[in-house]
């Protein structure tokens, strides 16, 4: 049995941690912001284009800022030639807040998996520029699986059954499995779950699949093991790392295509000259000892690289459209 317990199913916390270091950015003095400066100029003397703001979404903003700050420092120390004198980190509590910050210029660079990146890009006009090898992984996919003793053999057999998905901003735990189920002609019906009871599938019609949000991958696995749901979807890395006894009790019924693990998104308000300089810096980081050290502190990133952006983004948009 996997040693986890069902945790809270709330998708995202609205809490923002308060962490300000040095002078704040003139773009915003919102909570969950930290600054890195290479200039003796005071914050009031800096213009918006002189402050670079890195952003992400998390319910643990303080922890996220600690991981992002070394990268902010690295960039701030090397972008004076294009007018950047300070770098900050800003963590949003949810996707809607990040959309607002990107559109208003309160965040310049946003790092995330493909689904939230496509959502923000579509709604704000922000541009995907690079792929990030987060934790050494260039690309990943989704695994849809069930118990070995289940009569489910393919996704077509999920009709009238229930599946656990992670959250509605997850690429591997939402967009990919949802898109593949819909491409197969299945109708997805969101349900709620009482963790003390299994889901009731009697209300599901022909071609319908009930789904609930588990909150994270561990909960998804636990829900299947305890027979609360019939199937679940997690990313390939999570499935590969399951304990052998747990993995041997499961069977895979579908593997989706691979997509980029993480993408760097540039705000439409960021000048082209600065975007080009940032791209060049990020692409060269793995070629120097200091760059490698900074990458490692940035959630074990191995490198940034170019990838077929236009082709990849078009396919991601197709998958994104299927989630509606």
TrEMBL record:
The protein, known as: Phosphate/phosphite/phosphonate ABC transporter substrate-binding protein
């Amino acid at each position: 049995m996997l040693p986890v317990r069902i945790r809270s199913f709330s998708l995202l916390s609205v809490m923002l941690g308060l962490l300000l270091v040095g002078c704040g950015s003139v773009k915003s003095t919102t909570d969950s912001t930290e600054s890195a400066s290479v200039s003796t100029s005071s914050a009031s003397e800096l213009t918006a284009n002189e402050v670079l703001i890195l952003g992400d979404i998390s319910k643990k903003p303080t922890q996220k800022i600690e991981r992002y700050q070394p990268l902010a420092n690295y960039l701030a120390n090397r972008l004076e030639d294009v007018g950047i004198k300070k770098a900050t980190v800003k963590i949003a509590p949810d996707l809607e807040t990040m959309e607002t910050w990107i559109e208003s210029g309160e965040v310049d660079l946003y790092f995330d998996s493909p689904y939230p990146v496509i959502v923000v890009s579509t709604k704000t006009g922000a541009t995907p520029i690079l792929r990030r090898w987060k934790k050494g992984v260039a690309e990943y996919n989704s695994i849809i699986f069930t118990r070995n003793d289940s009569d489910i053999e393919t996704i077509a057999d999920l009709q009238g059954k229930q599946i656990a998905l992670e959250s509605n901003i997850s690429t591997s735990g939402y967009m990919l499995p949802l898109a593949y189920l819909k491409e197969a002609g299945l109708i997805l019906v969101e349900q709620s779950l009482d963790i003390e009871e299994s889901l009731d599938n009697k209300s599901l019609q022909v071609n319908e699949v009930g789904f609930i949000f588990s909150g994270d991958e561990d909960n998804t696995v636990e829900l299947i093991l305890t027979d609360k749901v019939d199937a679940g979807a997690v990313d390939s890395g999570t499935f590969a790392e399951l304990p052998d006894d747990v993995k041997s009790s499961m069977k895979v019924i579908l593997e989706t295509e691979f997509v980029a693990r993480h993408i760097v998104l540039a705000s439409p308000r960021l000048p082209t000259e600065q975007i080009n300089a940032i791209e060049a810096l990020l692409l060269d980081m793995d070629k120097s000892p200091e760059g490698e050290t900074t990458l490692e502190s940035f959630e074990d990133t191995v490198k940034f690289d170019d990838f077929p952006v236009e082709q990849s983004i078009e396919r991601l948009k197709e998958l994104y459209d299927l989630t509606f």
